[in-house]
Amino acid sequence: MDPASYGGCFKNTEVMLNDDCQDPKGAVVEAVVDELLEEVGRTYKDNGKIPDEVLSALNNVFQSSLLPALELVDSHNVTKVTCPAGRALYQVIGSSGTPYTCFLSSRYCSCPSYQFSCLKKGDHLMCKHVLAVRLCEAMGGVRELDVTNQEITNMLKQLE
To answer: Where in the sequence is the signal peptide annotated (predicted)?
Structure first.
């Protein structure tokens, strides 16, 4: 995968605006992220590892979040929590041992980095916890935990 093939949206290892890209968090970037994660899934399934060129492309997009996210993946710190009602969330044990709650559909995470870097500053597409979830899903390495409806409700209440 050649990062240059993504329309020039990525330069200086940061997602930035240029004449060819309208919104750094828009459809173009999301399509690139989805394509990269699909490639992670394909190559990991075939080879049991992520090729250097894919890691390089991921690094161009995610910069400083990539290595910590891969450490979370390697440590098996990502768990998908589901209940009989069909609700699901992800719990990621952060590097400090703190559990964070993530939702893939909104790229939400309960960590402070999400609040600051993703929402307030807007300089990250997602935090390392959400990236770890997406990588785990692509690689087929998500641990699963079934809980009761009440237990997942309690987990959601703690987010308030």
So the answer is: none
